[in-house]
């Protein structure tokens, strides 16, 4: 059986590297070695403790866990502390030291407890959503009814106002027709109250007013002879007889005819 010596293997490696470029050689030498992640190490530790179904001291774990989780003894405490902080590992101080353990069903129970809590929260939220939707629907229905009442009320008010205006219009049209009839009768007729009759009466009244004015002046001349032209006596008589129609110094006020 032929066994290659370490020297032969080293020569092969050096020979292979001589064919690489400078950058390729750097990558080859600096490439990190693939290893187990911290999460995977902690998973292995937790699985071992659950499977052991017993309690352990830190000293025992520092001896047991290195081959289990591919870690050295100095890293055991760090990973144990991380699991304790996450609540996946129980720790209790008994006597002078801490004891660590983990039960297999606890993780499942924790998940179930979390799921139950989430289900209750979801149920509570769904109930709140249902209540809010009911309130929204009630408000919408109330608003719809209010709009309908407002619309109907406005329509009824408009109808009442329209009827009142129509009645007022009919009344005004009746009054206008009556006035137009009166105007027509007065302008076209010649009976009492007609325009023609009033014009005749006005002309007659003017003539009578002028006649009585002339008679007053005749009486004034007669009174002037009786008083021998005494102006004070004449003015006193005029004030007494004419009243408001008397104008100082002008005898009677002019008639606007």
UniProtKB/TrEMBL annotation:
Annotated signal sequence range: none
Protein localization: Nucleus
Coiled-coil stretches noted in the UniProt entry, renumbered to this chain: 108-215
Mnd1 HTH domain location: 45-103
InterPro entries to which the protein is assigned, alphabetical: Mnd1, Mnd1_HTH
Entry-linked Pfam families: Mnd1
Principal location: nucleus
UniProt keyword Nucleotide-binding present: no
A GO CC annotation given for this chain: nucleus
Keyword Coiled coil tagged: yes
Family: Belongs to the MND1 family.
Protein name: Mnd1 HTH domain-containing protein
Provenance organism: Trichophyton soudanense CBS 452.61
């Amino acid at each position: 059986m032929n066994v290659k010596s370490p020297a032969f293997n080293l020569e092969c490696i050096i020979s292979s590297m001589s064919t690489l470029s400078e950058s390729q050689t750097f990558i080859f030498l600096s490439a990190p070695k693939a290893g187990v992640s911290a999460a995977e190490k902690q998973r292995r530790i937790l699985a071992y403790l659950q499977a052991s179904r017993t309690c352990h001291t830190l000293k025992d774990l520092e001896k047991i866990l290195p081959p289990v989780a591919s870690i050295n003894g100095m890293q055991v405490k760090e990973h144990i502390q991380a699991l304790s902080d996450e609540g996946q590992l129980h720790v209790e101080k008994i006597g002078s030291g801490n004891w660590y353990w983990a039960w297999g069903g606890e993780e499942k129970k924790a998940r179930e407890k979390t799921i139950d809590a989430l289900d209750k929260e979801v149920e509570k939220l769904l109930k709140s959503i249902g209540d809010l939707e009911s309130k929204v629907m009630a408000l919408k229905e109330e608003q719809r009814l209010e709009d309908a009442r407002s619309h109907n009320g406005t329509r009824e008010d408009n109808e009442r106002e329209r009827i009142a205006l129509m009645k007022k219009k009919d009344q005004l049209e009746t009054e206008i027709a009556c006035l137009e009839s009166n105007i027509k009768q007065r302008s076209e007729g010649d009976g009492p109250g007609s325009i023609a009759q009033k014009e005749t009466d006005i002309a007659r009244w003017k003539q009578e007013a002028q006649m009585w004015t002339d008679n007053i002046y005749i009486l004034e001349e007669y009174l002037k002879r009786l008083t021998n032209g005494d102006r004070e006596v004449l003015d006193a008589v005029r004030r007494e007889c004419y009243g408001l129609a008397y104008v100082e110094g002008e005898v009677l006020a002019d008639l606007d005819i």
